[in-house]
Specification:
The chain is an alpha+beta fold. The protein contains 4 helices and 8 strands; from the N terminus they run ααββββααββββ. A hairpin with a 5-residue loop joins β2 and β3.
Amino acid sequence: MTSTATRPRKESPSARAARKNRLLTWITLAIAAVICAVIGVGAYAMNTSWWTEESPVAASDQQLPDGQSRFDQAGQDFFNRQGRVTVDLSSTTSASDLGLPLAGTTAVDTLVPLSLDIRTGGEDITFGGVSHFEITTGQDSVTRISVEPPSSGSWSTISADLRSRATAWGWTDADLATLGDQVGDAARDEGVASTVSLPEVASEGLGITADVNVTAGGSLQLVYTLTR
């Protein structure tokens, strides 16, 4: 007996190509829709975030009620947005309440140059344009803060920075002249890294030192250290 069933027609190359193109078009449109949705959600979240507020208000995990900065991630996010860091060396606040370890040194590299305000119990000490500083703690208390001001880099800017603070803090012209000679000698000693320092002075109830680090390549870094 002979079968009368009709065999399906074979799809032509042009038809297969058209079907493939339609499929690729739908896939592309679906991917584009997902991307647009993600961007939309991200934009909405950003617009409703305190990062975009002109005067953001700190949450309890970002800053203490008296204005002291916290240094865990939430605190750093806030002071990077606010543009100001506040450290109180006259306070009895524990290091752990500030998001710092009970003992150790915490290095902070800011996202943008910030103003660093240090409360002393007397007049506040302010450093502008700070991108790096370190806080040292011991026995659950802040004991020291080291600050690299933006004047680091050349002796002319470092010298100007030191002279602007020398009178208030107690360094003499002779101290600065001696430091300048020592920096020159160290810079000429190629291939050798060294540190030269001004004598420690007492101001606002703190011990204050200024160190100039000279790298093996001759670069200069100024570091102020305030200790209570």
